[in-house]
């Protein structure tokens, strides 16, 4: 289970809500991993990956619009990090998912959780207060 902490708030309500939804998606990955009654998880994994990809594209666009609107000086490097995350999600090995479902779920859960927390704390926190500048 991936828990939201107040320290992850960046102070921009719309972005904070979007981050919380990303945590919800990560928790669905965690729930899939924990579900021992579900033998073949392939279709569920693909569905949650599609949701993760689609929502991150939407979220990153909103975040990037905010940065552009407020002339964030590190916009391009931040955008590259977003692109790299999307590429990682887009280049999953479908055979690995099919052959080693729980192992894949552990790997993607660790990647998403670590990336998201690190990105929020180290990158997104820097856009806090842009509207006042």
Automatic annotation (TrEMBL):
CDD domains tied to this protein: Hemerythrin
Residue ranges annotated for the Hemerythrin-like domain, each copy included: 11-127
Assigned keywords, A-Z: Iron, Metal-binding
Annotated SUPFAM superfamilies: Hemerythrin-like (SSF47188)
The keyword Metal-binding is annotated on this UniProt entry: yes
GO molecular function, one term: metal ion binding
Pfam families reported in the protein's UniProt record: Hemerythrin
Gene3D superfamilies: Hemerythrin-like
PANTHER family tied to this protein: BACTERIOHEMERYTHRIN (PTHR37164:SF1)
Family of this protein: Belongs to the hemerythrin family.
The name this protein goes by in its record: Iron-binding protein, hemerythrin
Originating organism: Sporomusa ovata
